[in-house]
Amino acid sequence: MLVKRVLIVGGGTSGWMTAAALSNKLGGSGIAIRLVESAEIGTVGVGEATVPHIRHFNATLGFDEAEFMTRTQGSFKLGIEFRNWGRIGDSYIHPFGVFGADIGGVPFHHHWLRMQARGQGGAFEDYSLPIQAARRGRFHHPNEDPRSLLNTFNYAYQFDASLYAKFLRSYAEARGVVRQEGKVVDVALNGETGFVESVTLEGGERVEADLFVDCSGFRGLLIEQALKSGYEEWTHWLPCDRAIALPCDNVGPLAPYTRATAQKSGWVWKIPLQHRTGNGHVYSSGFVSDDEALDTLLGEIAAPPLADPNRLRFVTGKRRRQWIGNCVSLGLAAGFLEPLESTSIHLIQLGIGRLLDLFPAQEWDPADAAEFNRLMDLEYERVRDFIILHYHATERDDSEFWNYCRTMTVPDSVAYKIELFRERGVVVNYRDGMFLEPSWLAVYLGQRVHPRHPDPLGDKVSDADVTAMMEAMRGRYTQAAEAMPTHETVLAQLAAQAA
Fold first, then answer.
1. CA–CA gap between residue 422 and residue 61 (Å, rounded)
2. Distance in angstroms between the alpha carbons of the first and the last residue of the chain
3. What is residue 123's predicted lDDT score, i.e. its pLDDT?
4. For residue 255, how far is the Cα from the chain centroid?
5. Would residue 77 show up in a list of annotated catalytic residues for this protein?
6. What is the b/e burial string over 85-116, where b = at least 16 CB atoms within 10 angstroms of the residue's CB?
7. Choosing from 77, 270, 318, 417, which is the catalytic residue?
8. Residue 47 confidence (pLDDT) above 60
């Protein structure tokens, strides 16, 4: 093997996810994996919400869900509720599941739009089982039977990111990963190849490796400070550049979804965990002061804070190259797209998967790094476009921030998708990217982006037949949601299993 020593620089969620995945995949290969981190350097540790892909990551590692949920104080997540995004007073949920079913070979949303024009059909979310369950505080694991309504949705997790990192650390260390305490103060590069040769710790120790994984957070100690990757900034389209995180006690039943409430210069998150509620305010410093932002957050939390405010500064965007030579960057070291759609951990997971797919076995082939960078660029851009949609597709004009977002020039890829939906109700699906048609529909219709001309083929089915089929669908979704146990009942059952 070309690579016999892997050094992961930095811990936190990205570092320990990498250590766990590599130790699982490369175990028995003779490759030594070491992770160096400093207890003096705090991790961001506020990423508490995920998307369904995390279930595959956990399953690959062989995690038992009951133990995982108990160890991380996790809860289930059926989607994200967005309040006040289209207009003040609006509320919609972006679910992990489909809306309705095709009628006469025409996508369901075209029929729903046709009925809406006649003042019929009810709310779009009536035709989503995960939304119906979320609104009722209920949860059920999906069914693998494709004929079952319980097969029409997926789910993710909400958990304490610091506890998840500890859980991953115990897993990785049990499989041979060596953790080393230390603060990196210098990075040595090879004068001929430009590869990273070693890092020097504060005490003077020099640590060598063949492959380096930079999980050092926003600083990008290796990928940026040493290798000068450069940064592609996206603040023109994603102007929020600061966040304040502030946990509090739980109040009321645990909701099986995350909430994002739009404010005058950003938005506030609420993430219910078993032992506390995670809260935070993501905002643009160009439109509101830090003190005002904190006041806004304090006005939104439902109980007294459990800690001092954790203030973060960031620049939305990505490294121009996330893999250079023998160094691969993951997590915040690779880039940052604000947490609106809970994609940070997913992008770490994607990067780890790509690294394992392209792992340098016999030689350093520049094509591997080039392909890694191409794929990760696409993923970051796809997520960027979807998040931009939330800000741009608004009717709010009550603040300078929303006026800016509503009128800003967006990337051509976003403008094209919005215009095609406004004209024909067509959802353009990217060849690559995590967000599929139901996700785009949730935001388009949740924020009042309605097509001028729904598919005329839908008119082949009579109004009476469409009305009857839609009423039957809605009744089945409601009945299935009502039959589910409460979210807290399922969590209690898992806790009993793990005991």
1. 43
2. 42
3. 97
4. 18
5. yes
6. bbeeebebbbbbbbbbeebeebbbbbbbbbbb
7. 77
8. no
Q: What is the pLDDT of residue 271?
A: 96
Range 482-497 average pLDDT: 97
Residue 212 has phi, psi (to 5 degrees) of -115, 135
Residue 325's SS3 state is coil
The pairing of strands 327-329 and 211-214 is parallel
d(C-alpha 273, C-alpha 10), whole Å: 26
For the stretch 129-169, pLDDT in tens is 999 999 999 999 999 999 999 999 999 999 999 999 999 99
| 322: exposed, middle or buried (Cβ count in 10 Å: 0-12, 13-18, 19+) | buried
pLDDT tens for residues 328-355? Answer: 999 999 999 999 999 999 999 999 999 9
Instruction: Output the CA–CA distances (angstroms, integers) from residue 395 to 81, 86, 325, in the order listed.
Output: 18, 6, 46
Q: Which residue has the tokens 């739980």?
A: 250
pTM: 0.96
* Beta strands per DSSP E along 152-234: 156-158, 178-181, 184-189, 196-201, 206-208, 211-214, 231-233
pLDDT at residue 430 greater than cutoff 80: no
Chain mean position to CA 101: 26
Q: CA of 302: how far to CAs of 2, 252, 449, in Å?
A: 54, 10, 32
d(CA 159, CA 72): 6
Percent of the chain exceeding pLDDT 90 equals 92
